[in-house]
Design a protein that fits this description.
globular, mainly beta, Metal Binding Protein, Guanine Nucleotide Exchange Factor, Chain A, three-stranded antiparallel beta sheet, 112 residues, seven-stranded antiparallel beta sheet, 0% helix
Length: 112
């Protein structure tokens, strides 16, 4: 039984850091995982690469695979470990490779 469900996210989604839009996409994916809140994944090319700085923190998830965290630069300063990417996904999460997700407690992710 699958514990991950990945769908195309309907509409246009944006991510803001410190009030500044750092990404916008009509090609985002929505991940539903267990009983956790949904997560929006943005295609990497839809995010301003200049705002991302690699973090030493690594992502390890039994369900999604291995990945990396990124700090996000904003007008208010660096937001540590605010973004992450699945770089070595499980078979079930293969669609998420080359996408970025964001910690909704550190930045704003919303449908517009």
């Amino acid at each position: 039984m699958s514990i991950l469900k990945i769908y195309p996210a309907e509409g246009t989604w944006v991510v803001r850091a410190g009030g500044s839009v750092i990404g916008e996409s009509t090609r985002a994916l929505e991940l539903l995982q267990r009983d956790w809140p949904f997560v929006i994944y943005f295609p990497r090319e839809d995010i301003a690469g200049a705002v991302l700085d690699a973090s030493a923190r690594k992502l390890e998830c039994d369900d999604r695979g291995m990945g990396a965290f990124y700090h996000v630069s904003s007008p208010e300063g660096l937001i540590e470990n605010a973004a992450y990417s699945i770089t070595d996904p499980t078979e079930e999460a293969a669609q998420l490779k080359d996408y970025l997700a964001f910690d909704a407690g550190k930045v704003t992710v919303e449908r517009v």
